[in-house]
Design goal:
Structural class: alpha+beta
Number of strands: 2
Shape: flat
Number of helices: 2
Low-confidence stretches: none
């Protein structure tokens, strides 16, 4: 089986991010590696 694809969620609505995380958590092909509330924070996380 191929490894999971890593996802970084960037959205300014916390409830929307939580919903996406819970949907993705049930998927065997993807994993959420981080989340951010704005683009600047998202780019900083993506660089790590």
């Amino acid at each position: 089986m191929a490894s999971k694809k890593s996802i970084l969620i960037i959205d300014d609505h916390p409830l929307f991010r939580e919903g996406l995380k819970s949907i993705i958590a049930g998927d065997r092909y993807f994993s959420v590696e981080g989340e951010a509330g704005d683009a600047r924070s998202g780019f900083a996380l993506a660089k790590k």
